[in-house]
User: Which sequence fits this backbone?
């Protein structure tokens, strides 16, 4: 099993570090880096074993035959990891959370 983060997702994760510090969600760069590293590690360690769900149509803009898993980081933040699977390779194509995409994610539960 392999996990591949597409370049756009890698860029978004680097940007997330900056956002977490600049918007004062997390106090320091080392803490923000650790937060993002934990998110990446969770994906790499769990994507193959978590129950995957078909992504809502809105997220097909990131690719065909998309699925998603969730990662509840704390009581306020749930991450949504969107991916496609080819053979034994998981291609991570988009990552968002309930704070950013709640209006689209809410449709998942309707």
Assistant:
């Amino acid at each position: 099993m392999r996990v591949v983060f597409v370049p756009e997702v890698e860029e978004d994760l680097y940007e997330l570090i900056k956002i977490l510090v600049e918007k004062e969600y997390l106090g320091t760069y080392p803490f923000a880096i650790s937060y993002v590293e934990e998110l990446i590690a969770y994906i790499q360690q769990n994507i193959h074993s978590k129950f995957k769900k078909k992504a809502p149509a809105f997220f097909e803009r990131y690719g065909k035959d998309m699925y998603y898993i969730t990662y509840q980081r704390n009581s306020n933040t749930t991450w949504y990891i969107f991916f496609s699977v080819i053979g034994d390779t998981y291609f991570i194509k988009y990552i968002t959370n309930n704070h950013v995409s709640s209006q689209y994610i809410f449709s998942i539960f309707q």
Q: What stands out?
A: The chain has one domain: 2-109.
